[in-house]
Amino acid sequence: MTIQSLLFATYRPVLAGGITLLLALALIAWRRRMASGAIPLIAMFLGAGWWALCYAVPLPELDQAERFLRFRLAFPGIVLVAPAILVFSLEYTGRKNQAAWRFIALLLIKPAILLLAVSWAPLHDLLFGAWRGRPGDGYFKGGPLFWAHTLYDYMLIMIGYGLLVRHYLRESPLYRRPVQLLLIGMAIPFVFNVITVLHVIPPGIDITPIGFAICSVFVATAVFKHGLLVPIAREKIIEAISDGVLVVDTSGCIVDSNPAAHDILKGDARPLRGRHLKEVLPQWTVASGTCDGENERTEVFIAGSDKYVDLRPISLKDASGTLKGSVLVLRDITTEKNTAMALEQANQQLRAQLFAIESMQKLLREQAIKDALTGLFNRRYLEETLQRELRQAERTGDPLAIVLIDIDYFKKINDTHGHACGDAVLQALGAMLLQKSRAGDLACRYGGEEFVIILIGTSHQIALQRAEQWRAEFAALSCSCNGTDISATLSAGVAVFPDHGREEGALLKAADDALYAAKAAGRNNVKSAIAENLAA
Q1: In sequence order, what are the residues at sequence separation of 6 or more whose Cβ sits closer than 8 angstroms to the Cβ of residue 451?
Q2: Does position 519 have pLDDT exceeding 90, yes or no?
Q3: Is 432 exposed, middle or buried (0-12, 13-18, 19+ CB in 10 A)?
Q4: What is the C-alpha radius of gyration for the chain, rounded to an integer number of angstroms?
Q5: DSSP per-residue letters across 23-84
Q6: What is the pLDDT of residue 292?
Q7: How far apart, in Å, are the Cα atoms of 413 and each of 278, 407, 436, 523?
């Protein structure tokens, strides 16, 4: 079997398979018609499918008048292919403005003229030229209009092909695979058409539809394996969402972004695509811009835009698990961050105010229970505390002693040196009592120059020893006032619960009686109510 006979035997079965695949791809593209380039791709599939169908269907013996029938039937599909390729290339490479309806209308002028020439017999000579061979088994040489049409379609295809090549060279390796398949696939029918037009193959056979059948295999691979068409256009999802999206390759170079990312980063007027991640997002600590696995969210402050951004990296891997790059999702959290900081600042202010209020309350409480001059507890606190401690001592059976102290000849000090010096003597005694008292003792200013110390859990003998110690230390003190050293002495009376009273009044009276006895004995000494009673 010769090559020519083999070509004739397999021609129509191959065309039938190509028609099936082209129509299937047109249906798939229709279902994904929202994707960029889907509509012109449908037009190309349908045009090539009709072209192949006209050559796949056998025609009966034709007479001289009908020798152009197959070509006349095929031309509606033929004239649709080249404009569809150009419009697809414009849309797929992002040049939508150039594919506006007015531009598409201009592209359709030539197909309309050519179809008029195909259907109107007086123009056949300009289109088909001379006929070679038998009516049913020959080909036309081609007239001026045919060659103008051919060159025009070749020009459209080359422009579209050039756009795809330029797009391929500018793309990151992450996105090149589907474009590469398109370039290979679309080159095949172009080469096959050149072979057919130049009559390199036997007459009566147009292998261009076979080229489109082979092309459809590459397009199908690009669609199904590499996501050439997506159900919803990228602009409808990525570009419309408020979160910023950056796609980076393994070198950290940005290969794609959406408008929200540019708004969040607020860089210069240059596009983000093609720049390194470290240049536009130096605040992120991962210098390469890629992540092997899912990293936790990172909060980043964008100084140029005064924004706080929640950044989440997502790794991109192929089917074999090889890292191809990363997607960085940037969410503007400035409002939430400012609100949180404002709340924290308000909380700090509230805590400061609360601390100030507590300090003021503490100060007011101290002022309510403390004597302003000596810093000891005042008489009001003494009366409240002594009553409470007596009840506690009664329940537990523990001893409780009180010491009533009076400064000897205090009026003389005031008269001789002045009240300021008298106050200095009172302050000196108060300071000494605070310093020499135990943690559980309560030193109070009872009034004027009188002081009361409550000794909780203290026996009679120990209370006498403590009072004698205070008397001796105070007598040794020298208080300087207005350049004069002033010395003073004290007298003290000691009373113990329950020996000298079980109530507050009785116990204080017993201590006061003992104090009176100490003064009557010449002052500067300590007397016990028990000793006084025994002496009586």
Answers
A1: 376, 404, 405, 406, 429, 430, 433, 443, 444, 445
A2: yes
A3: middle
A4: 54
A5: HHHHHHHHHTTTSTTHHHHHHHHHHHHHHHHHHHS------GGGTTHHHHHHHHHHHHHHHH
A6: 44
A7: 84, 10, 24, 15
Helices within 257-406 (DSSP H only): 259-265, 277-280, 334-369, 379-396
Cα separation of 277 and 300, whole Å?
14
pLDDT band at 177 (very low <50, low <70, confident <90, very high): confident
What type of residue is 106? L
Question: What 8-state DSSP symbol labels residue 202?
Answer: P
> Do 259 and 239 form a contact (C-beta atoms < 8 A)?
yes
Token pair recorded at residue 7: 């070509």
**Packed helices 38-56 and 208-224: angle between N→C axes, nearest 10 degrees:** 140
How far apart are the C-alpha atoms of 406 and 308, rounded to whole Å?
Answer: 71
- Given this model, what pLDDT does residue 288 score? 39
Q: Report CA-CA distances (Å) from 1 to 9, 169, 210, 315, 435.
A: 10, 45, 21, 56, 127
Rounded to whole angstroms, the Cα distance separating 308 from 341 reads: 12
The token pair at 208 is 């261009």
State pLDDT tens for residues 299-315.
777 766 678 888 888 88
Tell me which residue of 304, 317, 325 sits closest to 257, measured CA to CA. Answer: 325
Provide the pairing of β-strand 484-486 with 479-481.
antiparallel
Count CB-CB contacts under 10 A for residue 347.
Answer: 10
Mean pLDDT of the chain: 81
Determine the Cα–Cα distance for residues 44 and 82; give it in Å rounded to an integer.
8
Token pair 């009592």 is found at 433
pLDDT digits 0-9 by tens, 348-392: 999 999 998 888 888 788 778 889 899 899 998 998 899 999 999
d(CA 434, CA 443): 7
Beta bridge partners of 329: 245, 312
